Amino acid sequence: MQQSQSDRHSTSSWFTRLRFHCVVFVYILFGLMQTAFAETRLEIDSKNQNNHCTAQIISTQVAKAETDLAVVPQTGWIDVKLPDNWENRWDNYTGSAWYKIVWRSNCSESINNHPFAFVVDRINMAGIVYSNNELIWRDASLVEPLSRSWNKPRYWLLPSSSLKQEHNEILVRVVGVQSQKSGLGVVKIGDVKSITDLHKELVFERRTLFLINLLITMVLGTIGFLIWLFRRQETAFGWFSINSLFWSLFICNTLLTAPFPFTDSLLHARLNIIFLLVYAYTACLFVWRFSHEKFKHLEKTLATFVLLFSLALLLTPDDHLSTVMSIAFLYSSVIYILNCFFIQWIAYKKKKIDIYLLAAVFMLFMVIMLHDLSLMSNSNLESIYWTPFAAPITSLAISFILSWRIARNMRHIEKFNQTLEETVETVTFDLEQSLAKKHHLQLENMRLQERLNLSHELHDGLGGSIVRSMILLDHAENVEKNQVMSMFKLLRSDLRQVIDSGSSIGAKTPESPVMWVAPLRHRFVQIFEEMEIESTWIFSNHWNIKPPPLYCLTLSRVTEEALTNIVKHSDATDVEVSLFENDQNELILEIKDNGHGFEVNAVEKGLHVGLQSMQVRIKRLGGELEITSQSGLTVIRAILPMKE
């Protein structure tokens, strides 16, 4: 076709036209051959249909088994119509019964040339099959625990060597128990192909669909359990998982070919009805929790009924079990149907999409249940139960509900995230504005504080010194050079204090006393080495109580002033500088030298600016400056109180 399409858009040639005609001729020839073969097949099928053999069931009878179960009864045969439930004639009978099916073929040729097969939709509970007294099949167990063939369609090929042209006989010995509708199901006899096809259809409807139902139910139940496990507040899905569990146990009754371990047929039947009771109860709880409803008194009442019925089913004697089972089955069906109606009212009341969908699903379940209940009395093999199709419907519905809820929650989350993002952006902007305003106010406050501190320092320190100097110069007639120099030094010292007070703002305390003294030590050690003065520096590697930056700056100025005086005036050869804390949380700076000393009182009364400056600095911080001096030993000790 690609070449033909290409040629259609190109220049035509005789070769292209010839090839096109050949292709058309081949298609026409192929169509004629196909028509001829079809007519031939129709003729063959018509001929085969004319020669087709059919089977006709003449009679179906049943008789109780004799004491010797292997012997076919000679008397007591009763005509019956299949399917047959022998409880309709033999009340509370547990044992074996023989079914005799007499049939004949309608073949124009020898019956041995046309193989036959027959199918039975159920044998309740177990059985053994003969064709013209030839064994063709038997269940694995014909004694308790019995094999379970009640929902397992079976078919067999009839041995052509034993078939007769006129009458043929099929014998089926059925082993059943009371209250279990024991007997034989519908039997069909015909050619192998038709019986095989019928058997496949029955297996698909009676077993495969139920197996699919079971698998889907288990998967959905597991999903519901996991949802509840990770979100315990989703109690609806917890009840849904329990509901799925008991429905799975109930469905197993249609698939198992042997009873549950350590149970006989009747105990298995008792447990199966209990599973149905719990299934109906948990279905109610699932619907109510899904709809965010609680009916405490009603729930307790239903739970009480489930418990009472369960005890009755377990304790009732075998002779009366059939009545109790029928009542329990009817009760479960009524509760389930009423719940299907009740969810419609809840959906009308709630007016939510997911509850509307759940109500629609349960309405469909109610229709399916009513349909299948009506078929339980109908034995037509062409009747199809709708219950197996409920699982795919449940799967689609639950998937849609979960998807809708997830989508709804995602929309809520997205909306919440969007609102949260907008709120965060607004709050962030407001916070940035507030921080900027606060920072601006802090800067202004710091500037004002610095100005206030500077004004106080200038007024209290430098201003006072200027006033004293002016008074001294005003009253002195002859002022010597040394006195003027002392005045200037005093003013310089006060100016340094003002500068130090301002520079301490924003300063940081050194990490350790060693780091604090390192600059002073480096500077004065060089001077001491030039003057041949031995120096000892005793400092700790850490602070016990970290002092404020102003303390460190004050002690630095005191140390610098004291060491400068030692260099200038003491003629010392040995100096010791130490810093330590005592038990009273006092920081003590101690400076010793072995110089010739001085008169402390005379210096304090004079105009010695350096010592006065040290005293003023220490007293401003609430400390004390102690000075002792004599020939050979001078000690200057600065004591500052520390606070935690």
TrEMBL record:
GO biological process: one example: phosphorelay signal transduction system
Keywords (A to Z) from UniProt: Kinase, Membrane, Transferase, Transmembrane, Transmembrane helix, Two-component regulatory system
CDD domains the UniProt entry points to: HATPase_UhpB-NarQ-NarX-like (cd16917)
Catalytic activity: ATP + protein L-histidine = ADP + protein N-phospho-L-histidine
Enzyme class, broadest EC rank: transferase
Stretches that traverse the bilayer: 209-230, 237-257, 269-288, 300-316, 328-348, 355-373, 385-407
Family matches, as InterPro entries: 7TMR_DISM_rcpt_extracell_dom1, HATPase_C_sf, HATPase_dom, His_kinase_dom, Sensor_HK_TwoCompSys
Keyword Transmembrane: yes
Pfam families: 7TMR-DISM_7TM, HATPase_c
SMART domains documented for this protein: HATPase_c
EC number of the protein: 2.7.13.3
Gene Ontology MF term list: protein histidine kinase activity
Domain Histidine kinase intervals: 555-644
Source organism superkingdom: Bacteria
PANTHER family: NITRATE/NITRITE SENSOR PROTEIN NARX-RELATED, NITRATE_NITRITE SENSOR PROTEIN NARQ
Protein's name according to its UniProt entry: histidine kinase
Species the sequence originates in: Acinetobacter wuhouensis
